[in-house]
Each structure stands twice: as C-alpha cells, then as structure tokens.
Amino acid sequence: MLFVLFIISIILFAISKMMPGDPVLRLLEGRKLRPEQYETQYRLGREKLGLDQPVAVQYFKWMRSMVTADFGYSIQNKLPVRQMVAAPLKNTLKLNLFGLFFTFLITVPLGIVCATHKGRLGDQIIQIFTIIGYSLPVFIFGLIFISVFAVKFQIFPVSGTGVIDSKLTGFAKWWADLRYLALPLMVYVFSSLGGITRYVRAAMVEALRTDYIRTARAKGLPERIVVYSHAFRNSLIPFVTIFTGWFITIFSGSVVIERTFSYNGIGNVLITSLMQQDFAVVLTFYMFYALLTLAGNLIMDIGYCVVDPRVRLA
Questions:
Q1: What is the pLDDT of residue 11?
Q2: Domains in the chain: ranges and CATH
C-alpha cells in the first residue's frame, strides 16, 4: 500500500505541474500594482509557494508536509487547507452517512423481496422502476426534485447549505439545517436505489439457485431461515464489494449532487479548486482519496474473510 501510494503521489504531483496556468498570477489577480511592485510581489509569491526551487525539491517538500499533516495554503481562500476543508468535510459526512443509511435500509430488504418473488408481478414492476432509476443521470433527479419540492410546493430551499441565523439554537437551528440537507439527501437516496436494489437481487437470486438452499428446503427449514440465515449470508461476498466502495464515498463527496444544489461539501470544493487552479487543495484531496481507496481494498479483503471463512483457507 505504501509503495502504491508513493507512485500515485509522484503521478499526481507531475500532473499538477503539467497543468496550464500560474498559481502566483491567481494570487495577485485583482491587485492594483505598479510594474515594479508587481514583479516584486510575483517573485515573493513564487518564493512563498516554493515554486522557485527545482521540481524534485518541491515534490519532497510537499511529501514531507503531507506526512506531517501540513497540507499547504489555499491561495484562493487565503487559509490553510486544513481550516478550509473542516466545514465542507462535516457537510459531506452528514450527507453521505444519512444517504448510505437510508439507501441500504431500503435496497437490501427490497432486493431480497424481489429475489424471493422472482418473476412475479411485483418483482417485474420494481425491475422496471430500478432500470429507469439506474439509467437516469443524477442531475435529472436533482432537477425533478427542485421543480417539485422547491419551485412548485416551496417546501425546501433550492440550493446552498444555508446561512443559519446565529441566534437560532436547539431545535430551531437543527430544523433549519435539516431543510437545506433534505433535497440533496433525497436525490442521493433515490438516485442510488435502482443500482443497489438490482445488485442485491442478482446476488440473492444466484444464492437461492445453489444446491445447499435446495437441501435446506428439503430438510423442512422455515423459509425465513433459508433466506436470511443461509442465502443472504452467502450472497454477502459481492455485497461487501459494493458496500466498501460506497463507504469510501462517505469522505470523498458526491460531486454532481453537491454541485447541483451548491452544497458546501468536499465534492463542490474540489471542483471549485480545480477551476481556480488551487493545486494545494486539489493535491490534498486526491492523496486523501488514494489513501481511502487503498484502505478500502484492505477493509474489503478483511470483510471477505469475515463473511466467508473459505477465503481464509485460500
């Protein structure tokens, strides 16, 4: 994992250096300076950001700062990166944790019901809706929900995380915050239902076709025990894969949803930083995502061993 992370860091740093644009020019943008002052400020800006040193030296200084959790300085926000991402990370965690909870709360039972009633009318109707939901882009759900709940009925605000009045406390503050979270959360859940329901259904259908399930039924075991104790547990291998992938997104943000609703989350901050060439922020996020992905693969392997003891014997 460390070796892979090291290679990824080299690639990411090299890509950032090949990107067009000059961060120092962005830093000086809008300032009214005479030519000699501008030249002096430009030179000082390059020294401050370490851009006057060789690329190899810049890389090792950047890696040292990453290891010591000094993620650099955001030239656009005029803040250290750690301070700048604190609030967006909190908002992203809130959105994704609630989203994952409600998504799996709905899709797992729904997928199991579809698998146990495979081919019946209810299963066919659900499959039609899951195909539609799986095929539609996320921003289409966003536009539909904005049109219905924000424009037509005006129940929720259209966008933003809200400027909560500092005088609000207790339930009033919680309710105001919840109103701004509602639409992104609803779009998150509805856009995820189709794909995961079909995934759970396919895994359960495959498990219910196996010989040990027929044997369990032949022994007279109750259907509830057959489905939930035998079939579902043995269908968890593919389920662990998708759950781990979704768990990683808790920290990485939902870029399309956050951008659609101007939600102050990690995904929205990343896109804005890319557009503004704020490379300290971009590199910090990408290294964080790389570390999360590698850790997720490790968690996935451990999860395989937990749900299927046969993996430990391989």
A1: 93
A2: 2-70 (no CATH), 82-137+190-313 (1.10.3720.10)
